[in-house]
Amino acid sequence: MRSPLASLPIAAVALLFGFTMSAQAQNAQRHGKVIVPDSSVEHTGDAGHRAHTNHLIFVPDRKTQSSLSRPSGETPASLGCVYGLVSPLASGCTIAGSTVNPSRGAGAIAIVDAYDDPTAENDLAVFSSTFGLPQAVFIKVYASGPRPKTNCGWAQEISLDIEWAHAMAPYAKIYLVEASSSSLTALLKAESVAANLVAAAGGGEVTNSWSSGEFSSETSYDSKFTTPGVV
Fold it and tell me: Which domain holds residue 152?
């Protein structure tokens, strides 16, 4: 596939984002627990029928939480440095030493996920304000028409996806295309909607941070990922 919040303690964001954590957060990891949300569990019989997310959540103990005043993992500036998206590059691309955010991005990025994240737009605005990013051009689309029900685990995945897509390409239009459920039928319908939106916007990317176990007929879905002008 293409480039295959409930209230969380602020330090949990570092592991939620799936990026390397700072020394402070790594030290904090010894004083908390890792939670596997139900959305990231592949159940028996899911392969070929339902998809799952792949993120984990680190929740520090109360003492550690009180010592962390802001997100303590990688920042848009430090990851922009790592990926060569900023100039000049900070020496070593350290978190503390990286201060220049990415300032590129064009066209559109569509994020396909299941269920609804009711606070996605507000969370994205807070993320942008926290890290000094421009406010995003953000559009939410319900692939099947009605608003899907909310699912906490998928909402976490949605926030992760839209915020870091915006961080790396702050001037690209962000589409969040929500499937009605985590069934492959629903997600692939959302995939087609997303690809058409991106193509109409002049091209860009569709990203899917979900997966399913392998199954014998999976290549029959390849045509869902071949829209011209869409990566």
Answer: 12-73+104-225
Cβ neighbors of 157 (< 8 A, separation 6 or more) are 39, 53, 55, 113, 209, 210
**pLDDT tens digit string along 125-164?**
999 999 999 999 999 999 999 999 999 999 999 999 999 9
134 within a domain of the structure (yes/no): yes
User: Quick check: is 199 in a domain?
Assistant: yes
Q: Do the domain assignments include residue 122?
A: yes
- Number of domains forming the structure of the chain: 1
pTM: 0.83
Backbone torsions φ then ψ of 109, nearest 5 degrees: -125, 125
At 62, the pLDDT band (50, 70, 90 cuts) reads confident
* Residue 40 falls inside a structural domain: yes
Separation between Cα atoms, residue 11 and residue 16, nearest integer Å: 9
pLDDT of 8 > 60? The answer is: no
